[in-house]
Amino acid sequence: NIGLEVMSHEKLLSEISLGRIDLGYTLAYEEPQHPGSARVCTQPLGLYVSPHHPIAQLSAPSAAELCRCPIIAVPAHTHLRGLLDKALASVGVSGCPIAMETDLIDAVREAVLLGIGFACAFRRTFATAVATGTMHRVPIDGPRFAIDIRQVIPHRHRRDHRRGQRHVRGRPHPPSPAP
Question: Would you say 168 and 40 are in contact if contact means Cβ atoms under 8 Å apart?
């Protein structure tokens, strides 16, 4: 029986450890503290402003300049907010005034386009807007400005995790070896 349920990061880890679910996916900025996970892919992040925003006029804005700008942020106390804050801190951006908190991507897009502030989001989220010139991706340098999507497997299923990864990535996989 296969089912799909959206849940918080904390609930996912709890349900996996209790053996109530067999497979989960979560996000991580660094190597996660929970065992039994494997990186499926890495999603690059970007910082976005309106093309008319003062930051868009700078060829290479400094972290200090970005820190003075208001940010349109994911709600506080969420797993994703913690990851985005870590990624921003890795490029020296922290303590920005909060212009707005929302997890509605359309609201983020509108706020950015209105020039209310900048947003940190997965690059694919605003790729079309950047390509058409309706949004500007701020150039930043950093060692790792990305978030991993990780597959979490209960201990009892870990020997099969590579098989699951190949299946998720769309590659055929050989049958599991006999125990």
Answer: yes
Query: Rounded to two decimals, what is the model's pTM?
Result: 0.77
The sign of the CA dihedral 158, 160, 166, 168 is negative
Looking from the CA of 5 toward its CB, the CA atoms found within 13 Å total 13
CA gap 159, 172 in Å, rounded: 17
Contacts of 90 (CB under 8 A, 6+ apart): 142, 143, 144, 145
Position 153, amino acid: I
pLDDT in tens, 147-160: 888 888 775 554 55
Rounded distance, CA 149 to CA 5, Å? 16
Tokens of 119: 């947003």
| Residues 122, 145: Cα–Cα separation, whole Å | 10
pLDDT, mean of each 10-residue run, the chain (179 residues): 77 81 82 73 94 94 94 92 92 95 95 96 94 94 82 63 50 40
Which amino acid is located at 123 in the chain? R
